[in-house]
Amino acid sequence: MMGNLELGPEADVSQLEPLLTLENIEQLEATFVAQVQATVSQWLQKALDGEVAEWSREQAPNTDPSGFYHSPMPAIVLQILAENIRVTSLVNESLQQRVHGMALSELGVFLRSFSDALIRFSRNHLKGETLAPHYVPYLLAALNHQSALSSSVSVLQPDGVASGALAPVEAALDELQRRICRLVLEALQMELQPLFAALPSRRWLSSSELLGGVCEQTSRFCRDFWRVRKPAAQLLLAETERTVVVQYLRSLMLGRLVCRGADERTQAAVRLGHDAAQLKDLFLGLGLEESAHCAPVLLALGGLLNLHDPTLLSLEVAGLRQQFPDVSEDHVSALLDLRGDVSREQRQAALNSLQAGPPPSPSTGRRALFSLVPAPAPALSSCLASGPCS
């Protein structure tokens, strides 16, 4: 019975019944998993509380030897979960699978709590209830924590467990990344809104000063992005550039400026070209890959404004739709208002070309732009054909 060879002749082990019934084993495993789950939950909450306490410090986030924002929290979380899975592997496969499922469930709870804590941190800061001296750097640090969890979560996958078991956790990690990026971009939008309030205008037509202020502010905002690890750093840069371009498009759509003649239309087209180049230089300097840039949309809009023969607008609008399938009739109508010389018939023909032309080419890798810009209300039918209502 004890594995002693001298007892072999005295007992036929094959005739012995198990000391514990399957029901006993089931109860013991369930009790053990419940106790481990309670302990794991407490430790994960303790790790999160310690991280959240750092966010309002007077000091910037800690960094690793390479200069990237760093915290031990991701390693602690994964170590707690992985160790419990490893210990149960010494008992039996059934218990290991139970603890593995529990660990993934607790990680999902932890990620939701982490996300909720970030939202509270953001709202309290933006409302002025609890100002964080290093608000954006701690958001960037959280992005690194997400990356660390995402790149190492595979350690929780024991042999023999279906590979799809991690899918819910991976989806939760992706959503956490998107949420952190949104919080960072909200902070950028708040800083840029006052600067875009003067664009477009006649001062904008003749000077690069307005966009220069936008670029300067954006550059300052992005100064710590290099402390974010790839690929999250490239994603954040790409979303930052798109945010700036979307804010630019939003300003163009507000009807603050109507060109007073061919000279001003040419000026506006030239300004759009210069601004596109300025944004390109800015984000190339920040390290964004050129293939990810959205600013070339400004060149397409410049072509629409600088077209000398309004009867050809239908072709120009159809081409715009080919490049940017999410452009709407209201967006195009606002751009035609900016021209200031489009008759009602020409406008209608241009809008009809959005539907009559060939379908847009496949948008592989193309990111949304116009669909992120609130379309202005259509002009009333009583408006003058030469421009918006005065």
Keywords:
62% helix, Tetracycline Repressor, domain 2, 2 domains, 390 residues, disordered C terminus, mainly alpha
Order of SSEs, N→C?
HHHHHHHHHHHHH
Specify the CATH class of the largest domain.
Answer: Mainly Alpha
Overall CATH architecture of the largest domain: Orthogonal Bundle
- Low-confidence parts lasting 5 or more residues at pLDDT below 50? 380-390
Q: Helix/strand/pairing class, anyone? A: mainly alpha
How many H/I helical runs? 13
Main sheet makeup: none
The beta-strand count equals 0
Q: What gap, in angstroms, lies between the N and C termini?
A: 99 Å
Helix content: 55-70%
Mean pLDDT across the residues is 88
The name CATH uses for the topology of the largest domain is Tetracycline Repressor, domain 2
Number of domains: 2
Q: What coarse outline follows from CA principal-axis ratios?
A: elongated
Q: Provide the gyration radius in Å.
A: 30 Å
**What is the strand content?**
under 5%
List the helices and strands and how they pair.
Blueprint: H1 22-54, H2 73-88, H3 93-126, H4 135-152, H5 167-196, H6 202-206, H7 209-221, H8 232-252, H9 262-286, H10 297-306, H11 313-323, H12 329-339, H13 344-356
Provide a compact summary of the structure:
This protein is mainly α and 390 residues long. The protein has helices at residues 22-54, 73-88, 93-126, 135-152, 167-196, 202-206, 209-221, 232-252, 262-286, 297-306, 313-323, 329-339, 344-356.
